[in-house]
């Protein structure tokens, strides 16, 4: 924006002052709980209860040591974290592969049923995942996919598919055809065109799809709670839920809970710090025209 | 589950694509000869083959959707017509579960709470998001920091936001009540999540804290998309702050405002994680929502048939709202 416009838009008078004060209040409201989260993870439980606002000037790492050794969840947080990485990474990979292939076919393909297929993806978008829980629970039981990371990967990929495919189709529609036609005439197969010509220049769109999906997969609880009852396959959200942070209880292991939460937040926080512009742009693109 | 915003997208081509575009047009004209040499029959066979390849491209997605969505959806409808408790054999009962559902006050309570939650959370997040977007778009000092900070909570996993705020709202040692007591407002302290009157409202407040950044960035992008000329014209005309908002900004961003609100409603109707972690629907079902009610009937009371009926009812509500949204925005095979 032009500098003159920036000056012009800058509010003046009482309205501007009030807006500025409210913004500062909200800044405190958003930042403080997150700072509090990390501070608390570095304090002993008695310090947490007796001086909740204090800054941990002499931080203790006991909480982290405890959760890495096992803590109250009976298993090292590193295993939960590894499981979360495997499931999130695997689901994103399957999701990106299936949705970009399908999105490309819907955008480019001239075949009977293309319109119907597009309607199908829109309808699938309207299906709430909750209705699938009970049948999936028994279905996975029959297939031996309960407590299986492959099962979770395929399930999460499916839940993300309708929306991601619709977005990928939209992206490919706006993608110039000439490039692909040229490659076809050079003797490239259809898949070759897709793999060697289209995908490499679509990295930006694929990154947007990762941005849109990474958060919900990393923190998915509803299905994980029902489908993962064996300790060694559990994901991080289950570790947090295992601490049962009841509203009235004075937990004796608050520090451990905060250490686990800090570790669950950290990967997403780093991701946000590095890619904040792309993330905000990607989420906007994903929302509405 | 985190909300996956519904709707359409508008991507910009990246510069590499448009650069390569100009070089490729030459190759197209060179290649025309070979194309004209192919016979009609060969072309036909090629077209059939091409069609088959498109179906192959679609196959993985369709297969996943069929296996993990269509079949379970059908099974859910089927299960909702059975009585199936724990390890007992299941018995076909027709629509009995739905008749029971109709008279189930816990179900109505959960439905009422869910709708209240969805409406209040949407008004809260979109309202606050709009205010923040308007304020930041005025290029106030520090707007870069605000933009960064206000979106930060959205990055927290649901479970973390929920567990963190459960501790903050804890009645005896929690941050909020301790803070109120410290500044001499101790009489305002409440057992936030343990109170029948306040539990749902407290959860809604946490959701607003967690998600307001999302409508904010979407609305901010819409506001910043309004052309500078319009702002200039408004300034030259001497339009007041209020009139500029009323006659310029709001009409320009109206479609985005409507879409983001509906997206928030649909997403809020599916709430589960945050309620499960914070109250499990309690105390005394005061914060029970469809998601938690369904989960309890299925996995705590082992009534899989009845829980399926709850799930089907939930499906009907959300599917209807989403479908109305499609009709409203005339989304049809997503045109751009």
Structure, explained:
The complex is a heterodimer of chains A (289) and B (336). Chain A contains 14 helices and no strands. Chain A is mainly alpha-helical. Chain A folds into 2 domains: 3-68, no CATH class; 75-242, Orthogonal Bundle (MetI-like fold). Chain A is globular and about 70 Å long. The model of chain A has no long low-confidence stretch (mean pLDDT 84). Chain B is mainly alpha-helical and 336 residues long. Chain B has a domain at 98-329: MetI-like (MetI-like fold, Orthogonal Bundle), CATH 1.10.3720.10. Chain B has 14 helices and 2 strands. In chain B, strands 1-2 form a two-stranded antiparallel sheet. The radius of gyration of chain B is 27 Å and the shape is flat. The model of chain B is unreliable at 1-36 and 332-336 (pLDDT under 50). Chains A and B meet through helix 1, helix 2, helix 5, helix 6 and helix 7 of A and helix 1, helix 2, helix 4, helix 5 and helix 6 of B.
Q: Flag low-confidence runs of chain A.
A: none
- How many helical elements of chain A? 14
Residues in helices of chain B, as a percent range: over 70%
CATH superfamily of one domain in chain B: MetI-like
**Which of globular, elongated, flat, extended, rod-shaped describes the shape of chain A?**
globular
- Quick one: which chains have the greatest interface? A-B, 138 and 138 residues
Q: First CA to last CA of chain B: what distance?
A: 28 Å
Fourth CATH level, the homologous superfamily of the largest domain in chain A: MetI-like
Nearest-angstrom radius of gyration of chain B? 27 Å
Q: What is the SS-derived class of chain A?
A: mainly alpha
Helix content of chain A: over 70%
Name the CATH class of the largest domain in chain A: Mainly Alpha
Please write the string of helix (H) and strand (E) elements of chain A: HHHHHHHHHHHHHH
Keywords (chain A): Cell membrane, Membrane, Transmembrane, Transmembrane helix, Transport
Subcellular location (chain A): Cell membrane
Family (chain A): Belongs to the binding-protein-dependent transport system permease family.
Protein name (chain A): Carbohydrate ABC transporter permease
